[in-house]
Design a protein that fits this description.
Helices cover about 65% and strands about 0% of the residues. With about 120 residues, the chain is mostly helical.
Length: about 120
């Protein structure tokens, strides 16, 4: 993250103090977003002071969830069931069309080989 630290403290000609402060905030936010990306190690994403301070400074932010995520919460509706069935049918049809396309391509190759064989046989 040396690059981020360098970008944070880099002076740019023609920037006002307000624009410079906004730029530093953007660099800090970008750094926090990059560090929040999980890298596959145990323990989850790292927490940075910039990220933590931004969430604690806004206690008025509320989540819409009531915290209830049991099996009843994710019940499949009639519409979603119908959509899933239609999706599966289209997937099966597409697989069949792909198989037919491959068969037609193979047949085209065979016909080309046979016609080339008869053409060469006529010339000789």
């Amino acid at each position: 993250m040396m690059f981020m630290e360098a970008m944070e403290h880099k002076l740019v000609k023609g920037l006002t103090t307000y624009e410079l402060a906004a730029r530093n905030d953007l660099v800090l936010a970008l750094r926090a977003r990059i560090e929040a990306i999980p890298d596959g190690t145990a323990g989850g994403p790292k927490s940075t002071s910039a990220w933590a301070s931004s969430t604690t400074s806004r206690p008025d932010i509320k989540f819409d969830s009531d915290g209830r995520f049991d099996d009843d919460y994710f019940q499949e509706s009639h519409e979603s069931s119908q959509f899933r069935q239609e999706f599966e049918m289209r997937k099966i049809k597409q697989a069949g069309l792909d198989a037919l396309k491959n068969m037609a391509s193979d047949m085209n190759e065979k016909v080309s080989c046979v016609s080339l064989y008869f053409y060469v046989k006529q010339i000789w």
